[in-house]
Amino acid sequence: MAITKLEDGRWKVDVRVSPVKRFRKTFKTKGEAQRFELHVQGKAEQSKEWAVKGPDRRRLSELVGLWYDLHGHMLKDGERRRAKLDALAVRLGDPVAATLRPQVYAHDRRVRNEAGTSPKTLNNELGYLRAVYNELRGLGEVAYANPLELVKPFRIEERELSWLDDGEVDQLLDAIRSGCDNPHVLPIVLICLATGARWSEAEGLRPSRLRECTVTYAQTKSSRVRSIPISADLDAFIREHWKQHGQFTPAITSFRRALDRSGIELPKGQASHALRHTFASRFMQKGGNILTLQKILGHSSLAMTMRYAHLAPEHLVEAVRLNPLAGRAIFGQTPTLESKNP
Asked: Annotated active-site positions, please?
């Protein structure tokens, strides 16, 4: 940085404010040159473009708050996520976010797992915390790598899907009709069985979303609106129910009591969701198309729907035709498809 006088009497300013930014200009008087030099220095000081930034000392709780203000407030479950993240920050001792050690996080995760917190919940929280760093980095608020980038989530065994057979459907409906303390349980269950809806979607159905034997679900888990046709009988039943009892109100507790009375045993956590599985399973067993099922269920990816693909009739036939015993004379004769289908 220098001010020099040229041979023609003018004054030259040569100011470098960073390794890649430099200002050079000439003036008639030295006073003008000096004022320009001070001006450039002041601008550089304000922008700090030339300065080496110090370490980021913000705490994890500060980043969580910043994430919520800039991004989390737009999410459906933003407030719930923030509450979980705030609790996690407290458990971890609210460290400087840039220096969070993966070992510290992993120890807290182990303690919570041993205390009974499910692996799925822990994996969700890991995803939430990673998202804080990733979103803020994408917004230019943090300049360092995600400290949990290489932490692996728990491997979770896929749960066996449970659905009701015809006899169990009858058992459940009988238990509901015979002693249910909430009149809304029966129509909600019928809607779930007829359309594959989640309990919350069926429970939230309003008259404006039932038109010409078609139900429309909005504000869904995947944020997609979908419409599914139903029978004229079910349409009439629902409309008559609303005339007598009004719109649906929360009924999940009454449903669980009816399920207990029916004697049907389902895996933990699959009470009302078994109705959705029942629809999907029957749909595939009766020859339904997997892509159509994806649209009906509102899955954002086909991978979720593929859980039901193995129930398709052609899939079951392939299991007989293509297994390693096919064509072998193991049972005294060679089994063939032709012999079974003369």
From this structure: 198, 221, 273, 276, 299, 308
